[in-house]
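Researcher: Sequence of Circularly permuted type 2 ATP-grasp protein follows. Predict its structure.
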Amino acid sequence: MQSLGLPAVTGFDEMIGSGSEVRPHYTGYHDWLLQQDRQVLQRKRKEAELQFHRVGITFNVYGEDSGTERLIPFDTLPRIIPGAEWLQLEKGVIQRVQALNLFLHDIYHDQNIIKAGRIPAEQIFGNAQYQPCMQDVDLPNQVYSQISGVDLIRDDAGTWYVLEDNLRTPSGVSYMIENRRMMMRLFPELFAQQTVAPVEHYPTLLLETLQQSAVHSHPTVVLLTPGRFNSAYFEHAFLAQQMGIELVEGADLFVKDGYVYMRTTAGPQRVDVIYRRIDDAFLDPLAFRADSMLGVPGLLSVYREGNVVLANAVGTGVGDDKSIYPYVPDMVRFYLDEEPILANVPTWQCRREAELKEVLARLPELVVKEVHGAGGYGMLVGPAASQAEIEQFRQRLLADPDNYIAQPTLSLSTCPIFVEQGIAPRHIDLRPFVLSGHDTRVVPGGLTRVAMREGSLVVNSSQGGGTKDTWVLEDGEASSC
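Model: Prediction complete. Tokens:
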């Protein structure tokens, strides 16, 4: 550790264990890193940045000047996970997503979990993401979330927790793939010496998953995007290109005689599966927001008749709402008759009077989140907030307690990154991507997000976070570099 010039690490570090020893699965990479010229590594970083700009791997941030695009910071030090540890994480996220899909089917059908008293009815029917139009609608394979992202963290003791579930339109998989491509381009020798599990086949698995949801063979699949001004437009275009399917906007589709068609130069073509990256409210102006220019008039009626598949399903947002998050471990027990492999972060529900009182008394030490919030917006990180920010948030809580949950401020694990001064630890999380079709599958690794600012716990790209490549060692050990 001293030879790398790393500062002292507090908490759990992915690379450095107690007493400054390098963790076994990092030894091969660590030995290689010691032999590298720092100026060469700096040049590699600049090359990566240039290539990402050339490819167009940028994103827009809502609220900033129109047309402003940013490059998501990319760190060339990989996050490495031993194979045996990954297998346990994989089982945990698959178990969780299976339970969530069963939950979504249940609440839109027999509602057994409500009848059993495991979740209060008002938590479902009063939820802004609940869609009554989905009641008794049968979906292929009973799958609501074909594409899920489960955000994982670990604490100072190295224990893994689920921070949140993403079931509506989880993003970031394009960065997972491009990060790997970049690392293989910059450091091909590392992949010849390490048994790193591949991630490049994700688009193939995604297309297979979407095709499996169709009611007949050889379906036509399209990706529906809000357009180029959306913050994740690069990903939409990237995935459509990688899957070999059409990238469409609402104006490219129309409904006729109970089916959805795509306008093409050869005439209308029927569409069977829509991988939509548009929120429920904007999908169909006849059924949801009448002012939406992004959706397809009449789409919901075709969907309810089973003549087109939407991935992910309408109404899926109930499952990843933060007010539902505290109940997911009990869903695993209820639907699968199993104990959860991965635990939740302890959570206070501010709608409960006693829990709200405790949260208000401990605001400076807690993280408070909006139940419908995303992207790091609408949240308070107590230890990093000013007194004025804390008091402002206190008033929000008092005005609308149902809209918030609170959690302890866990000191996320760290992983070394390159900074101007050399190498330093930064906090990270992990988002594995789960594909649910005939089977439930996970590409090894997922997206590691990094809080680039020293001491920051916010990893979201919209809040200045970066990414790094995630290696799962197939044999669970590091080979010698």
